[in-house]
Amino acid sequence: MTFHAKTYTGKLCSTVGGVLALSSFMFINGIQASSLDEVRSGIGFPERFPDYYYFGFNDNNHFFQQSVYTTGSIYYEYIRFPNDRTDLFNKCTSPSFDIPFGVTNNNTAIGYKRFTSATEFGYIMTFNIDTNECTSMEVGASFRPKGFNDLAEVLHEADGMLFRYTPTTGEHVVVPIPTSGVTEAQINDAGYIVYSINSTQSYVIRPNDPHSYAIPEIGSVMDINDNNFIIGGSVNGCYTYHLDTQVLNQIDSIPCTEMTTLINDNDIALIERPDDLSIVYRVASDETFVLKQLPDFVNLNGELEGLNNHNTLFVVYNNGEYWSRSIHSLELPTMPLDIDNDSPHFLASSRWVPILNGKYSYYVPIAVDEWRVEQSKSGHFGKDYLSIASGSGSQKVSWTQLIETAGVVTVKVRYPEGIDNNTQAHYKVNTSSETSQVIVNQQLSAGQWVTLGSYYIEANSTIIVELSDAGNGVTVADAVRLQTN
pLDDT digit string (tens) for 183-223? Predict the structure, then answer.
């Protein structure tokens, strides 16, 4: 299933003489990612133009984007790669691509050819970027695209009716629905069709069954995956619903009908909330996470555009001068949660400078006798640790984590072996309700998780573990573990 991308929005520009006018794009400083590890902290694709029309994001990290010169009605559509682009304008002729819609996991671009008006569409187009094969189906005016699957089967609405087009066979048939007013419609690879009428009631049509069955609570169905989970919303909130077990779960009290709302085949949902607190929901464990507080996303402030089946996010940023696109590997936290010294949740004092090591942005010292990145001592957690000679206590590091569910959290720390280690390492645990100071002999229990204590954490509050250079030896900053009781 590939409908894991926002297809109804982007940064729209003005209409000039009935023609949609967008800026053309150049691909600048693209970086190819050979594995998900390399994109965990985000591979960026800077673009020096402020507007775009974006569609689709598949499991191969390809996305489909329209670029239009503002000098007239010359349209260019691109399949975009991490470091390349393919111009689709001349790939298919009679008709040619005009409006992009998405790209499937088998690298088939889906688009449309419109008639004279920007609000009318005349052909459904497909182009496979591996085989260079084109297909087209004339569908008439007043045509509105809805959803598609990895077989490139496309749903569209016209004159109050819902249609299904299968490019491999050329079949173009009416989907039997009892009434007009289709506002949303999606199809998965198994052929399950879900649709909404006037964004107030949703229905499912199962394979080999022409009847429509009402879906409880969900007024607008936003996405469906290949495990038959759907996600959608109503005035009462945002929900997932399983078409086979008929289990309904409420994710959020805020309706998820206007922003990006997706669910991939790992049953992980992405909901872009209007209050800028985008959330991720894992169906299997019924867990919800605030995206900006997840590992690798502590500073994420872009517009979410897509989620594929590798749990990779597609994000668009605006720094005030240009738009840039990035892909990020989504890592959901589980308890126990380990925060290493190379995590973005680890921060050092003000005399540090940021370093990107291919996984996270973290901080290293810029002067002698301050914290140093080292690997020589055995028993450390992860690839390295930080150390500093004893001092006044002014040099500090911290590990920070948002805890969404109220409860008791046990805090543990880890450090490597060293005969010169600090025997009076000064740790401090800060919560919304208390501050606790703990002295640890870092010459004992090295390479193990040492408990600082257990603390009650209020819902949606932050726990901060600090370590200073106070003491009588080399202080080592390595990792913190948070564990629920």
Answer: 999 999 999 999 999 999 999 999 999 999 999 999 999 99
Task: For the chain, list the domains and their CATH numbers.
Answer: 15-329 (2.130.10.10), 337-484 (2.60.120.260)
**How would you label 4-42 residue by residue, b for 16+ Cβ within 10 Å and e otherwise?**
bbbbeebbebeeeeeebbbbebebeebeebeebebbbbb
Cis peptide, bond prior to residue 365, ω within 30 of zero = no
Rounded Cα gap, residues 229 and 248, in angstroms:
10
Residues 6 or more apart whose Cβ sits within 8 Å of residue 14:
21
Alpha-carbon distance 143 to 127, whole Å?
20
Grouping H, G, I as helix, E, B as strand and the rest as coil, residue 114 is strand
H or E stretch covering 155:
strand 154-158
Side chain identity, residue 482: L
In whole angstroms, what is the distance from residue 380 CA to residue 374 CA? 10
The C-alpha atoms of residue 468 and residue 402 are separated, in whole angstroms, by 22
Give residues with Cβ within 8 angstroms of 185, minimum separation 6. 146, 147, 155, 157, 162, 193, 194, 195, 196, 221
CA dihedral 176, 178, 184, 190 (to 10 degrees): -40
> Which range is most confident: 118-132, 259-273, 353-367?
259-273
Asked if 248 and 241 touch (Cβ cutoff 8 Å), the reply is: yes
- Does residue 418 carry a pLDDT above 80? yes
Contact 261, 304 (CB under 8 A): no
For residue 292, which phi and psi values (nearest 5 degrees)? Answer: -70, -10
pTM exceeds cut of 0.70: no
